[in-house]
């Protein structure tokens, strides 16, 4: 869900809404080049990994302090 709040993704979804509306049948068409979409997804994946890594660190450090 982190990706959905990324500014790049929000802008892209706004463009989709302008182009096709919110109610469409079939596949979703993104008004950008394939490479641009891939880059947005890669940034999302990197952000997700960083957040997950931070959560693991907080959990492991809290275990140290609780013992």
Automatic annotation (TrEMBL):
What Pfam families does the entry give? Auxin_inducible
**BP terms from Gene Ontology:** response to auxin
Per its UniProt entry, which superkingdom is the organism in? Eukaryota
Q: Which family does it belong to?
A: Belongs to the ARG7 family.
Protein name from the UniProt record? Uncharacterized protein
Q: What organism, scientifically named, is this protein from?
A: Linum tenue
């Amino acid at each position: 869900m982190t990706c959905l709040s990324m500014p790049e993704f929000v802008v892209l979804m706004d463009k989709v809404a302008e182009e096709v509306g919110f109610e469409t049948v079939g596949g979703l068409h993104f008004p950008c080049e394939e490479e641009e979409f891939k880059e947005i997804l890669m940034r999302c994946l990197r952000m997700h990994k960083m957040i997950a890594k931070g959560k693991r660190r907080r959990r492991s450090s809290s275990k140290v302090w609780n013992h």
